[in-house]
Amino acid sequence: MYPRQNGHESQDSDDELATPPSTYAAHRIATWLLPHGLDLFEHRSSANCILRTGTLMFYVHVPMLASRSPTLRGIFDEMIKTGAFDEYDSEDSDGDDDDEDSDMTSDDTHARESQTHQHGELLDQEMQLSDSVMENSDGEKDIPHSGDSDREDDDGNDDGLPELTLELADPEGSCFRELLKFLYTGNGQEWVQCFTADNYGSILQNICYLNIRTPEVVQVCRQFEASVPGSGLQGKAEDFMRRFVEQQQLLRQQQQQQ
User: 222 burial class (0-12, 13-18, 19+ CB within 10 angstroms)?
Assistant: First the structure.
């Protein structure tokens, strides 16, 4: 049971208290997965979803991305509610009786808009990467390596995995692959290497769309801005993010008035 707020007894039922806030669950999952992120990144055989944007295609892991991006968490939540991944889960369970923990959430719907609602099922996903991090007979964790990936050379989906399509700002030019890798690893020093004055605007748009305006992301942006003195980019990230938040607040107010 989780702490009561303000020292008063909560009016919520015990069932509601049994599931922690999704933000807490997401943080806990991310903390557990990030050390393995580099090995999981683009690892096809352990992936449970295909993400497409522009001409790019990635084999991804729903718990990882849902724990790192509130926007993706909301999208995956909607897919979970609509049962978009049920067929994949059913086929997976029928094909492997030994893999009882393979019910990792995923989606097969093309998502075009940012969704903000979250779900409590993320907590159950923390220990469900049996396809990715498995206990061997010695009790040691067997982490798949990115070099073991058997990805296709083309854009076909012979795996039968659910698919998610995102419409992002210039995914190729803004180096979305590097942003995605950052979500997996938390390595901002590698991500910032692809920042340029030309693609910075698109990068900021995608940061805001994915709702990853965290202190570590802001610090990466500040680092880039400091590296290009005289470019007029100093303070652009925080200004851009502030205006984005204001626009979202205005939009919500307008929706509430309708």
Answer: middle
Is the confidence at residue 55, as pLDDT, over 50?
yes
Can you list the pairs that 93-98 forms with residues at least 24 positions away whose Cβ atoms lie under 8 Å? Answer: none
Are the C-beta atoms of 65 and 74 separated by less than 8 Å?
no
- Domain range for 33: 19-127+159-165
Residue 135 belongs to a domain? no
> pLDDT digits over 76-92, tens only?
988 888 887 776 655 55
pLDDT digit string (tens) for 228-254? Answer: 999 999 999 999 999 999 999 999 999
Place of tokens 């449970």: 48
Write out the H or E segment, with its range, that includes residue 255. helix 236-257
How many beta carbons lie within 10 A of that of residue 168, not counting itself?
17
Paired tokens of 223: 């680092």
The answer to whether the beta carbons of residues 106 and 83 sit under 8 Å apart is no
Query: Could you tell me how far CA 174 lies from the centroid of its own chain?
Result: 17
Chain centroid, CA 198 distance in Å? 25
Is 7 inside a domain boundary? no
Q: How many CB atoms lie within 10 A of CB 154?
A: 8
Phi-psi region at 160: left, alpha or beta (left = phi > 0; alpha = psi -120 to 50): left
Q: How far apart are CA 214 and CA 19, in angstroms?
A: 24
Provide φ and ψ at 141, rounded to 5°. Answer: -85, 130
Burial class of residue 157 (count of CB atoms within 10 Å of its CB; 0-12, 13-18, 19+) = middle
State the pairing for strand pair 163-165/49-53. parallel
Structure tokens at 33: 């997965």
Question: Within a domain: residue 118?
Answer: yes
